[in-house]
Amino acid sequence: MPRIALLQSNTFTTKDESFDHHERLIRKAAAEGARIVATQELFLTPYFCTVEDTALFDLADRLPGPVTERIGALAAELGVVIVSSLFEHRGAGLYHNTAAIHDADGSLLGLYRKSHIPQDPGFEEKFYFTPGDSGWPVWDTAFGKIGVLICWDQWYPEAARLMALGGAELIIYPTAIGWLPQEKAALGEAQHCAWETVQRGHAVANGCYVAAVNRAGTHDGTEFWGQSFVANPYGQIVAKASVEKEEILLHDIDFKQVEDFRRIWPFFRDRRIDAYGDITLRWREK
Q: Architecture of 3-280 per CATH?
């Protein structure tokens, strides 16, 4: 049973400071038996999407590049799979919110580019990120078949289903989500409940593990709600971090549960694939 480590961390002033800190966390997680390690969304930078500022595009990195080379060397040295969430400069004026997946031998298996891009007060992501065109890849790593989606992708059952149909036994969601001060008193509990519940539902509907890794602490008016978690195929939360603290959340993933669950709850068998054509419509007109 491979052990997963979710790195729920804080915000740092510079990319170098954040990288050095997260390297220490990755080393600590590996020393504690982790074989799959996942960072929070955009782990090298603050969550800069609270404002629209063209100067912040300078935070992006070319991928592959020096960043992925350093992560790959670390993965190879420690023998761990690393899922890292990065700000990608793909081409002139073209930027993505991207996850890099390194196997335990250090090889870069590929990139997943965030498909669903939000636009809300405090989450000005459409200003920065082009919707991803990487499809729904599933990575057959040394420690299991892993799908990776990013934050706003969490709300879309279609994305989780396509990952599961591609063979994913574990879906990892690097995340940066929290409360805005003006909303927390009235809506904070409901917002968090919705976020956690929808992902637990993805685990059940697809008979797989779901792991969501969030930030902690406050930055630029957003209070990140932490509470990174792992849910098993029944949607049960089997590991959960605190609201405020930096933590390495560890859990042993029993992939046999995936096959056992899918035998008892054969949702893939009973899907009416002949009847779902309208799912690709924007809206069903009456």
A: 4-Layer Sandwich (3.60)
